[in-house]
Description:
Elements: E1 2-4, E2 8-10, E3 29-33, H1 37-49, E4 53-57, E5 61-64, E6 66-67, E7 70-71, H2 72-82, E8 88-92, H3 106-112, E9 117-120, H4 125-154
Parallel strand pairs: 3-4, 5-8, 8-9
Antiparallel strand pairs: 1-2, 6-7
Amino acid sequence: MQKNRLFGKIHYLPLPDSSASPENRILAKILIVDDDTAVQATVRLLLERAGHSVVTAGDGLFLDIFMPGMDGFETMRMVHHLRPLVPIIVISGRPIASEEGSAPDFLTMAIKLGAVSSLQKPFKPAALLAAVADAMEAAKRLSSLSSHAAGGVASRP
């Protein structure tokens, strides 16, 4: 057992038994989105010791709109609620509607709901890099506006 400044006492779970049959092991791929590196490291360590595969993110999020068992729009809404300054780039393999009366354009809908950029799959590497650059700029603008607004409110009598 070890003490941690964020979570107090941490009870380390034993590493999964690699000889156990696959049906007896429950493993998941888990994304941790947090700008606090100490929280990321602690949660990652705990989950990896339990046998999960973990990826961390703090500065942005790529989000597929349509995934089995998960609604990308709802995920985007939750992320925006919890972390409003995290830029989200949405991706989708569904075709963009070109005719009136056809399926809705989900990528455009995602932009209207707060995504900073969108990419239609498959996309070219240059488009990916441009979307990330745009997301980083958007994050800087949002952060600047947020800190400016907070400073303005705090400085009023």
